[in-house]
Structures are given as structure tokens and as C-alpha cells.
Amino acid sequence: MRAIARFLRSGWVIGLLGLCLIALLIWNAGPLFAFAGKQPLASEDSRFIAIILVVALWVAYRVFLYVRAKAVSARVVDAILGRVERPTAGEAPQPAAQEVAALEHNLQRAVDVLKRGKGSRLPGRQYIYQLPWYVLIGPPGSGKTTALTSSQLRFLVTNENGQGRELRGVHGTRDCDWFFTDEAVMLDTAGRYVTQDSREDVDRGAWLGFLKLLKTYRKRRPINGVLVCVSLPDIVTQSEAQSQRESQAIRLRIRELHEQLGIHFPIYLLFTKCDLLAGFTEFFDDLGNDERQQVWGTTFATNADLSDVSGLFGREFKLLEQRINERLVTRLDRERDPRRRALIYGFPQQFASVQLAAERFIRDTFEATRYELPAALRGVYFTSGTQTGTPLDRLTAALSSSFGLGRQQLASFSGHGKSYFVSRLLSDVVFREAGLANSDPNEEKRRRWMHRGVLAAAVLVTALVALAWVNSYFKNRKLIDQFTERAAAVAGQVEQVGVADTGMAAALPALDSALQLTGRDAAGDSVVSAVLQVGLDQRPGLESEATARYRALLRDLLLPRLVLRLEERLRSDASVDEVYAALRTYLMLRGDHFDAPAIVDWVQNDFVAHDLDVVSKADREKLVAHVTNLFERGPVRLPLDLDANVVQQARGKLLGMSLADRVYSQIIDNGALWRDVADFRASDKVGNVFNYVFATEQGGAAGAGVDRRFTFNGYMKFRKHIADTSEQLAGETWVVGEGFGATAGDRLDEVRGAVLRRYLEEYKSRWDGFLMALTIVPMGDDLNKAIDVLQILASDDSPLKKLLIAVERETTLSRADDLVDKGSDAAVGALKKLGDTVGSLLQTPAPVTQGLGGGASRHPVDEHFVRLNNLVRAAEGGSPGIDGSLALLTELTG
Predict the structure, then answer these.
(1) Residues 221 and 361 in one domain
(2) What pLDDT does 832 receive?
């Protein structure tokens, strides 16, 4: 049962139970946790990952404890071994150093065997530093080692051959033996460390050095107790002077333990070799192994008054004597050997005869004086480790002395006996009271301050969290009130939107207000609150409800108006390009061919085409954002079915629209396609001086330029998408109807050529318009300004030359094919093939790729602007023609 209880109290079991509770908390309460407007544990995957992380952290913590405990134990052992002061070369070792070297040797042997894995493993993964440590002291020959080796404890160290540890109690302890058990570390010191009567300086130096090692490497609690072992026959036979001398030596060693270690610890007095009392072996010979392991002695109460400890022991001794007398009749009745019966009969008197000597020893050793506190004697116990020597018959000796008779010598023991009253004394009494030893006051003071600091930090954090929670509570109350007011305002705005007002802009105020309630800006980004981030944030719930209402408004207010706008375009006299784009978008709303970006592009282009002066740019951007939010989750269920008559009428209008026109419109009107292409701005090419020198027919030059779709980069992008778009629209019979465009796939090459020709015609038209509208800034009668403008135009950094060079780059489209000269052979082949295709589409006499092999370019745009572009092209061995013209201007202004 004790093993089960110890297992249930172990750190692993408690830790696993804690992990299970935390895992249950995360799994069940995780979705309720909100942080910064987010719910990180809402999904099952995130909660599973969180549980895995907690388990990993706990395992890492246990590994850390394992490594730290192992390292601390290793440091303790290594430090003890490293404390030996070795003599320098040529110097004879000091006796004290030799003593410590002997300690090192014994410990090193034990550690080596442990490292080789021949010793038993520690239960609960404990290590040397974590186990309780006990010191055994006593005069030489007092039976300390015998008591340990016969205690039936589970020793962790075996000898080098893997056999059980050798019993060396008969030979005595030379210095200090280290006994590692699964419950404690026993430090068996030499008896001469107590008496110090052979070589006092050597023995005292080794003893004090040993205590310093304990203090240095077990700072908090160097030892958990002291076992004082005294031979019972010795104190009985000693003279009073000898007994006092031995008592004072032990008393002094205990005082030194207190002073050097700085702690108070329990002391256990063991009267050993009780087997040498005549009749002991015969009296207890009937006990089995379990009965011999019980405790024979007395343990004082923790609150007992130890000022008269000898008197306290005397009263307890009478109880022990009474128990022996109660057992006497039973033992006599079971014994048939007359000699043994005589010894059994006399044992109670033999035991009673040692009381006075034991009381005197206890009084001299442990009772307090006026100048010192009493030692913490926990109990007095009688033990026998092995039966060795000749029993002492005090009763017969006294009678023989009184009547002048000769003493009869009792037979000696062989030394191979049984242990009595040792095992449970250590395991059930001594080791169970390992916590009675207090800790070093200085170390405890440091730890108390550390604990106070941790506690103060915890209190501070708790206070801050509580304060934050209180603040969060009031902030959330205020937020809820504000949300309620704003929701009511949105409801009012919705009521103000007239049914007859079918314009999309009419719903904008209500939609903007509803969007703000969702916690997102017009672009749909989350607005993170910097205040409500303490786990009590009500914003997610409010925003979730607001998002649902916002999406309902998008469906009820915006979607019907979008449908009406599309039907309006389909019924209007718009161009076939506009009708096709509107019909395509209109049919997408059914969901079969839904394409959210295409719908948004149509809305954006339609606003630019029809509401540029009616709806501001900011409002247009907001409406486009609302449309984006409307379709961000896919198709939306329409409030009404699409008007089939409107679709049929629109398809009738498209009968005159060729596939090439649809392809052209699809590419040109695709706003997403042109986002990464820049418009041509003359001021960007020339610099700020452009606005000073040039003007347009509208009276200014600030916005002079060409649309991005008709720049060199725009041409590259347009040409790239002709083939794919042609194939796509050729298959879009769902827009124009099954009977229209059914044969479009048979003439895709012609379609592509027509698309490119239309684009290039528009390309030339856009650049012609730009160039024709551009003039020199009007100067009137201001001669100085005229001269200034002409000088700027004729300068080395001429804005006119810069402009013409920029125009030449944009209107020399054959450059697109010349770029292959810098590529690999494979790239050249591919682009030549593309150039041949483009040339055939343009139906020109020479292919567009003629530039790949040299010769004049026959590209239509190049031909159209050849005279203008030749002004900035250098003739072979000469300079550009523009340079001569600028030179004439220089002469005129010079």
C-alpha cells in the first residue's frame, strides 16, 4: 500500500493528471477564449495543437528536471572528489590530505560502479543530491558499519564483480564509507573522527574538512539526521571517567555538526551489540525475520521536554523492561534446554542492569547545560547486527563477586548470526523523519526572499490582470452601448433608403455604417482594438453579429440595385461591347459561371464610364469594396430570378458583335490585367520642366500622356492574352446563346488577327491624339519667356529630345521581337515562331520578326511613326536629326 501511495504522490502521476485537466479545459473552454478580437482556439485543429504544445512543454520541463538533478548530483560527487589538495611534485603529502584522499578513493569506487550501471536504479528517478543524507558517528568498534550492512536495506552499489557489497564491520571503518541506498545516503564515518585520540590534528582536520564539503555542496540541508552508535557492553563495563570522556567526545562532535552545518537535526541513539548481553540471543531466538526487523526502543514525542532526557529515557526504559517480562513466561514455556532456559530467565535482569549506565551516558551526552540548548534526541534504540564475541553476564559476575565464587565463562559467538531490530528502525523511523532537519537559516532567508519576490510578482500580475479585467468590463459595457446606438442608427439609415431610388450610391451611407460595425474598414481589414485584449473582449461576438447583418444588407440593398443596374445597361443604347460585358456579368450572378473578380471589374469600369461626374472617386471605391465583400464567399442567392426577356433582347443586340470585338473588349476592360502596367506620363519622362515648356489643347500639360493599355508594356501584355482570351470567349456560348459563335472555333486565327489589328489601330490613334494635342506653351508677347523656352528646348538636356526619345521607345513595337537577341537559342526559336504568327495576323508583306535577322521593320505602328522616330535615330556614322534642329534653335537664341 505504501508503494501504491508513493506512486500516486509522484510528480509524474500528478503531472499527468494536471495535463489531463488542462487538455480538457483547452478542448472544452478554448472556443470561449478571445484575444485581440480573435478566437485562436476556435477550431479543433488549433486546440489539438495547443494541447500538443502543453504536453511538449511539460515533457521538456521534466527533462530539464532530470538533467538538472543529474547534473547537480554529478557536481556534488565531482566536487567532493575534487576537494583533495594534492601535493606538488617533490612534496610529501600531508596526513590530513592523505585522509581526504582515502575518502576520495572510497567514493570514487562507488561512483564508478554506479556509472557502469551495475548498481540498482533509484526509484522515482531520484539522485544522490535529492536523497536524504545521514551521518553515522560513534567510537571505534561501536558497530556502525555492522548495523548498516545487516539492516537489509537495498544498497545501490555493488562490488566490482557485480556481487553484493562486502561486509566489513568486523574490520572497522578506516575513514568514511559511502552507502547509497534507494532511500538515503549513509555516511559511515570512522570511529577515530569522534574520539580523535590517536592523531588529533589529522583526525580533526579530516573531520572538519568532511563537514565543510557537506556544507558547500548541500547548502540548504547538508544532512537530515545523525545516528550515534554506542556499544552497550562498552558503556556498561567502562569506568565513569571513560564514559564521561566518550560522552564529551560525542557531545563535541554533535556541537561541531551544529556549528559547521548551521542547522538543527534529529539525533538517533543506537545502543549496539545488545547480543553481548547474556541471554539476548536465546531470549529472541524464536523471532522470525519480520519480527526481528521491528523496532526495539523508544521514540520521543516531537514536543517532549528534553531538558531531563535521561529521566524521560528512564521512564520509557521501564516500559521496555515490562514488555520483556511479559514475554518471559512464554519463552520459558517453549524452551526445553535447561542451560538456555536459565539464560532466558536471567535476561530481563541482565537488561535491567544496563539502565543506570545508559541513563548516565544519555545525561552526559545530550542533556543541556546553562550555555547551550539540548540536542534534538529523537529516540533511543537497542540493536544487534551480528553475534560476535563473548556475552557479558553481569548478573553472574555480581553474584560470584559477592560470594567469592569463580566466574563461569559463557561460550563465544561465531560471528555468523542474525540482525535484530535494525531494518525497520531505519526505514520506518529514521528515513520517515527526513524532513525534521531544518534548513540553513541563511539559505532559507535567501529562498524566502526569492519566494517573496515570486509571490510579489504573482500578486502584481494578478492585480494587473484583475485591473485589466475591470477596465475591460467597463470598456465592454461602453462598447455594447455604443454598438447598440450605432446599430439603431444603421437601421434608421436603411429605412431612409427609398425603394424607388435604385442607384447603388443610395445604399452607400447605410452600407458604410454597417461595415464599420463589423470592425473592418472599407478594404475588409480587421481593426484590432488595443484596449480589449484581456480575454474578456466582447468585440468578436458583436462583430460576428454585425457581420451577419452587414451581409444581409449587402444581399437586400446592394445586390438588387446591382441587378437593376445591369438590366439598365442591357436595355440601354449602349455599344455592343458594353452590352456583352453587362450580359456576361448579369448571367454570372446565377452562379453557373460565377467569377467574382470579373463582376467587380465590370462594376468598377461601369462607374468610370457612366458615373464619373455623378459619384466621387472615394464613393466609387467604397461601392466597389462593398461589391467585393458581397461576393467574397462565392455566389449569392438572388432575391428574384433573372429577367429572361432582358437576356433575350441583349443577345439580339449582340448578333452584330463579332467574336473579335468581344475578345478585344474582354482584354481591354479587364482592370485586374492592367494593374501592374503604368500609364505613360510625359512629365515623368521629361521632368518638371515639361509643364513649363509644353501645353495641350485643353490649356495645360499636367495630365498629358497615354493610357497604360496603349504603352509598350501594355502591348506586350495585350499580345500575350489574345490567344487565351479568344479560346475562352469562343466557348462562352452561355453568354450569347447556343446558336451564336458555334463556328467561332473554326476561325480563331482570323479572330486573333482582327483583334490585334483593332488594337494596333487604337494604339496609333491614342498616340496620334497625344502628339497632336501637345504644343509649345503659349508665350504671347512675352519675348523673354519665348527666349527662355527656346533656350530650354535647345539645351543639351532638351526636354523636346527627351520626349521624342520616350515616344520612340513606346511606338517602336518591333522591340518586343528584338529582345530575343539577348535570349537563348530555344527562346529565340520560340519568339521567332510567335513573331511569325503575329506577322501573319497583321497580314503584312514582311514578318514582324524581321528585326531578328536585320533589315527594316515592317510593323504597322513602327511604319506609322517612322518619320517622327527617325528624328532621334542616328544615321550610320552620323547623329540624330533632332540634333541639327536643336543646333539651329541654339543659334537663334544665341
Answers:
(1) yes
(2) 41
